[in-house]
């Protein structure tokens, strides 16, 4: 806090000086104020390598760590998940909820100096609905995108879509590019955005960003950001200690406790919106029986699972959405109770010694979780067989329904639509577990069209309870976001959605 | 010799064709669907079908192979499924990093193996020999990634002499290039050098026992000259063989060391290509590795003739 205050004072001092450049040279050596009191290049070590930088195509988190700082979206979530103006200054919804009118910010320029206007928005949104786009599904209810004038964009919908802001601004996958960008640039390695930093280079060894002086919200405090790919966590932490890097997200959960007493490293922790769950194959006996699934849900000791996977750096949750969120709902019917588990399994006709294959991806925390589940469920008479698959094979088997159960996570959802809809409606894209409950479908459809926030939350709460009771997913926990940086670094906030924004960051002296 | 080289190159082409067929068959047989991986969490059947058709993966394997081969002979290795970049570009981007590391590591290995192996052969069953044997055994046994992390903790962490990792191009900044090269090169060099030490020792021992060495000694030739001209020269042949194999192996990337030292090399590229089922990149990388092995072997065979005049190629 002290550092933040001091640097604010420096900014004011520099501004107070106006145009004045110190030419008389009587500033004492050692106390001279550099032209930009902050400045410097922030070096960030991220734990994996981005596949490519086309915001509408990539799905890799590592890519978005970089893109977050290069592009803007029409609206953007604040750390609590509420949407705020970004390239759109304001917006209005028609009474029927089918037309959204966005008024665009003035005086915004792209990194190449060209002016931002409504044609760029129409171009970008249309590109997002295209065949190669990873985010096309977010525009399922969008009928047309029009630009009545340079500062206005109108989105017309086929059905009311209360979560439209999340769909068009939840993360940088919906970045606004200048019109024709895909033809003018190789977007896999180049960028031209409106964000606080310009992309100078991107290669197998890293990415280099420079401050964009003409950014609409003001130039960033640092001169640039260099991203390095620090895959090995011991090496990343050593690099942090030696000051080679200033920031990293490669902090294994087991190191958190040790690092908290470490003077050379500052650790930032925030509960995330990600969640881990277990899904049983409901197209298959005996897991088509709700009692059999509930039996498994009662047979799991979530505290031990969390301890084993995250060393406590996680919050146990029996629904998907963390309690801190506006959409969080406190509902936890399953206490760890092997006896009740056995009773339910008996009533579903599941014999002692029933096998259950749990499919997990190798080298993920799913493996540790499955080991704890194996011990837990043995007490309820279920023999767990842990099936480790690398992700490509895992996805294949998931898609083909070739599993008893799988453990996996969902990341980056903000709106309850993203948390519950496609996973639990009968013909949902991600409903690999084969769940189908007409009542839940009706609730989820109704919630998806409800424009009153409180009424909408009530509907989702109701749906969530049924999903939990039916054990469509058996929810386990929300992991924490853990990041670390050099002491004295300020102006940075760990966010539940893991967005990494270096715009305001100030390096230590 | 020219005729020999031409014949060898012709053989190499046949080997490459065989390798490419084998790789093609194997990677397509491994379970895991590249389109499904590329789509990840945004899977839907319509997109899937469209991508499948566009990628040509719905064609019969034989058709796919020949269309790949047709482009490959013209130098076009296709486009990465994962990044959309041309495969040749992706590989060439990483080649300098891998080549720097491989060459530096072999130099370190030779600097360890030749003196250590020679000394221990000259003084068999002494403390020196015993030390060399234990040291090389240790170098082989210690896991390389662990040694790498220890080096980082000591030389970058505690002592702060070297950066923890990362790669800087030789042409961008030669000093930084060298500083960053030291730790990974030494880590690999210790392992390779330990293996090579044992070859040097046994081949020097063998050479020492030969008649012409005895004869040279009897002639009253100085011990140093005997060693240089009669012993080491003969001992070089097995060393060149082992060194060549080691070099070719290092040129195909060293995944674990690359990860530990943030080295953007070919090993990580190939590993990611396997994980992502990025067939074009994997195919291109394996083809390159095969070429490297063939070229290194050819050079090794030609070196034999230089080292030992009795070996002649026709």
Per-chain topology:
The complex is a heterodimer of chains A (509) and B (314).
Chain A: H1 2-16, E1 41-46, H2 61-67, E2 75-77, E3 83-85, E4 88-93, E5 99-104, H3 118-128, E6 142-149, E7 152-157, H4 164-169, H5 181-184, E8 197-203, E9 206-211, E10 224-229, H6 233-241, E11 247-248, H7 256-260, E12 266-271, E13 275-280, H8 290-298, H9 302-310, E14 314-316, H10 338-347, E15 354-361, H11 365-378, E16 382-389, H12 391-400, E17 405-410, H13 416-424, H14 438-449, H15 453-469, E18 474-485
Parallel strand pairs in A: 1-10, 1-11, 15-16, 15-17
Antiparallel strand pairs in A: 2-3, 4-5, 5-7, 6-7, 8-9, 9-10, 11-18, 12-18, 13-17, 13-18, 14-18
Helix pairs in contact in A: 8-10, 9-11, 13-14, 13-15, 14-15
Chain B: H1 2-29, H2 34-39, H3 45-55, H4 61-73, H5 87-122, H6 127-141, H7 144-158, H8 174-208, H9 211-218, H10 223-251, H11 255-260, H12 266-276, H13 279-307
What do these coordinates show?
The complex is a heterodimer of chains A (509) and B (314). With 509 residues, chain A is an alpha+beta fold. Chain A contains 15 helices and 18 strands. Chain A has helices at residues 2-16, 61-67, 118-128, 164-169, 181-184, 233-241, 256-260, 290-298, 302-310, 338-347, 365-378, 391-400, 416-424, 438-449, 453-469; strands at 41-46, 75-77, 83-85, 88-93, 99-104, 142-149, 152-157, 197-203, 206-211, 224-229, 247-248, 266-271, 275-280, 314-316, 354-361, 382-389, 405-410, 474-485. In chain A, strands 1, 8, 9, 10, 11, 12, 13, 14, 15, 16, 17 and 18 form a twelve-stranded mixed beta sheet that branches. In chain A, strands 4-5-7-6 form a four-stranded antiparallel beta sheet, covered by helices on one side. In chain A, strand 6 and strand 7 (152-157) form a beta hairpin. In chain A, helix 8 packs antiparallel against helix 10 and helix 13 runs antiparallel to helix 14 (438-449). With 314 residues, chain B is mainly alpha-helical. Chain B has 13 helices and no strands. The radius of gyration of chain B is 24 Å and the shape is globular. The N and C termini of chain B lie close together (6 Å). The relative contact order of chain B is 0.14. The interface between A and B is large, with 38 and 43 residues.
